[in-house]
Amino acid sequence: MGSRVRLDVDGPVATITNDNPDKHNAFDDEMDVELFEILAELALRRDIRAVIWRGEGKSFSSGRDVGSIGNLKVDLSHHELMRRGHRGIQKIWEIDAPVIVACKGWVMGGSFQRALLCDIRVAADDARFRLPEVTYGVIPDTGGVAVLYEMAGHGVVSDMVLTGRILPAAEALALGIVSRVVPAADLDGVVREMAEQIAAAPAVTVKMAREVIRHLAVPQIRASMADEMIYQTFINKSDDFAELRAARAEDRAPRFTGS
To answer: What is the SS3 assignment for 251?
Structure first.
């Protein structure tokens, strides 16, 4: 299978593209590895002044490929897989260049959380944001909930996490989750213009401004990730999670015990 996460470099601007459009760019284990390798490469490059992260097709990413939830396809324990995921996505913080996310269509689950770890999010007017993990018997575990809490507050985070509600682009703008909403046809052009504007600014100034902002946010995100790793690992071994999977396989209502 060819690469489903691509890196293209055009002068000082790098573009990461999620390229699994038939599944709305849903991620599986192999795509995670490709993304983490790209982030690690960008963390070492000093010629890149701005990064765009976008999706091919209709959506940025619908999150995790639901067929891979609870079904590991790599030779790692659940805890080790989460550690790899946290370490891999935290490479974003080692990239000197700001990362701008072009949000369109579905921006869901872990991919929504990963977008929240980036510097700037711009939404097409058709973008829809969602955290559906609880409906699959798990919790958000990529650190984005800490960012969302800072942006939107306790009530909005609880609503999105516990009910899985869909947040439209206009409401995401009002809550500060995205900084701009543009027509879908203009999204790539607007984001490219923003990247070029950042790339034209003094590199050291951009770097220091981002350090100030990251010092405000990153400690809380790291603490949240540590909690998520513990609780998600517990959930993976819980009776309720096993019952959920069994009930769905047997096409019956689950009988949860809270253990």
So the answer is: coil
Strand 106-108, strand 128-130: pairing: parallel
Q: Compute the distance between CA of residue 191 and CA of residue 195 in angstroms, rounded to an integer.
A: 6
Query: Does residue 82 contact residue 128 with C-beta atoms inside 8 Å?
Result: no
When divided into structural domains, the chain yields a total of 1
- Strands 50-55 and 13-18 turn out to be parallel
234 in a structural domain? no
pTM to 2 decimal places: 0.93
- Tens digit of pLDDT for each residue in 119-148? 999 999 999 999 999 999 999 999 999 999
DSSP-assigned letter for residue 21: G
For residue 21, the enclosing domain spans 5-203
- Give the distance from CA 147 to its chain's centroid: 11
Helix axis angle for 29-44 and 78-89, nearest 10°, is 30
Residue 60 has pLDDT above 80, yes or no: yes
- Cα separation of 240 and 257, whole Å? 6
State the number of CA atoms in the 13 A half-sphere of 224 facing the CB. 20
Does the residue 216 lie in any domain? no
> In this structure, what DSSP letter does residue 76 have?
S
